[in-house]
């Protein structure tokens, strides 16, 4: 049976989805169970000459897509999580030390992420004051990082943001809005400093 057919059936049937989620994900640690992590190389797409360092935490259950392009690297102590949305990484891209990426996220080719960066498409819902925040679930809004981008150390990219090609995000910036192509952004929240 085709993987896409299995994913489609999984997403259409809530009871089946809940059961499979329980089997695959440790509900306390909110990460794939140990036996699923052992099987990860069988269902993850890893391009030619790509590298995932041993200490990287790959929270990638098989019911979502994870793809790492040719000659791309995920450095030590990075955390990649596609439990709520696919994570797709292009060719010749480097995911730096201690980066956290929570899908759905698309990262293009020739992208360099420095150390300690957080890219998240996930938000916790909190609108209902009669319920605890942890009872209200989550929402997602995809992040897109186009080709030929450099993001400096400790930057944060928030849900729904698109960063246009050939752009630079300064160290420590918090990106809350789309970044046009050929832009240098910096600050909290990030603002355009100049066109490149």
Query: Which parts are unreliable, with pLDDT below 50 for 5 consecutive residues or more?
Result: none
Strand order of the largest sheet: 4-7-10-13-18-21-23-24
Instruction: Tell how many strands the DSSP assignment holds.
Output: 24
Structural class of the secondary structure composition? alpha/beta
Average pLDDT, rounded to a whole number, is 91
Assign an overall shape.
globular
The description of the largest β-sheet is: 8 strands, mixed
Descriptive overview:
The chain is built from three helices and 24 strands. By secondary structure, it is an alpha/beta fold. The chain is globular, with a radius of gyration of 17 Å. 30% of the residues are buried.
Search tags:
196 residues, alpha/beta, 8-stranded mixed sheet, 6-stranded parallel sheet, 3 helices
What is this structure, in a nutshell?
16% of the residues lie in helices and 33% in strands. By secondary structure, the chain is an alpha/beta fold.
């Amino acid at each position: 049976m085709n993987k896409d057919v299995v994913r489609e059936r999984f997403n259409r049937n809530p009871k089946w989805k809940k059961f499979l989620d329980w089997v695959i994900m440790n509900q306390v640690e909110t990460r794939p169970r140990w036996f699923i992590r052992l099987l990860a190389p069988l269902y993850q797409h890893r391009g030619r000459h790509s590298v995932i360092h041993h200490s990287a935490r790959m929270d990638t259950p098989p019911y979502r897509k994870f793809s790492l392009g040719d000659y791309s690297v995920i450095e030590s102590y990075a955390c990649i999580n596609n439990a709520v949305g696919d994570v797709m990484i292009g060719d010749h891209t480097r995911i730096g030390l201690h980066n956290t990426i929570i899908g759905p996220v698309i990262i293009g080719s020739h992208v360099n992420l420095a150390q300690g960066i957080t890219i998240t498409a996930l938000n916790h819902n909190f609108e209902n004051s009669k319920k605890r925040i942890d009872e209200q679930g989550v929402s997602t809004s995809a992040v897109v990082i186009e080709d030929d981008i450099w993001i400096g150390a400790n930057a944060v990219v928030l849900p729904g943001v698109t960063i246009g090609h050939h752009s630079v995000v300064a160290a420590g910036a918090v990106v809350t809005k789309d970044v046009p192509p050929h832009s240098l952004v910096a600050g909290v929240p990030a603002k355009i400093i100049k066109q490149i």
